[in-house]
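Recap from last week: sequence in, structure out.
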Amino acid sequence: MNLRLYLQTLRWNRVRLLAVVLASIGWGILIPVIYVAFADAFKNLANSGAIPKELLNFGSGSLFTLPGALTLGLQHPLAIAFVGIFAVGSTVSSIAGEREAGTLEVLLARPISRRTLYLTLAAASASLIAIVMAALLGGQLIGVAIQGVGDELDLAQMPLVFLNGLMLWSAFAAFGLAASVSFDRHAPAIGLTLAYLLINYFLEILGSLWRDAAWTQQYSLFHHFNPGKILTGKTDPLDFLILAVAIVIPVAYALVVFPRRDLAAPS
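Predicted structure tokens:
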């Protein structure tokens, strides 16, 4: 890894990182507040039979329990947008964007190999994702403390939740970087990565809302990020294994393909 490039990459992202961190903390604080305010109302609505219970769930989360509410907050499109800015937006433009702008050759002309470049950008992306995940979880902990509902959680498991979330988004970032090294233009790389993200999200939401399609959740990476299970002591090691495989495959692909690629002249 090239330390100078790593630090420079973080500096380039510092303004939007600050904005996303502040928004993530605010969103995290809001989730326990919503849970305390509306959990009983949702439980009564579900028990009345007026609305099927499945329609009051969202992905692997729900507002019926505090761990479920925290899961819902982390799988909500807003939280996905916060992390996706770095897991998708930054990764796909890191190499394909440089190539499209005609600046990749200048970067590679310096004493830095392609594998070093890739690993440095991967480390920077993981660091940015880790900061945003920490902000989301930190905000949730602040909200839990404000509402005084910490006894409903096993807070000692929160580092494991952080690791689980970091692995989920590192898998998407690894896919984004693999797409970035595969194309000379920004558009196809981001299109492919967004399609991968949206398909995974669709399978998770479809399975949670439609009982007969519940099996589709098993094929979604989002289903293997479930803070609710972890915070209630039901951690499944298989979730971590699946996410690890989802990281290793695109990383291995990129490390093999990128050094061997001929870079066409930008048009």
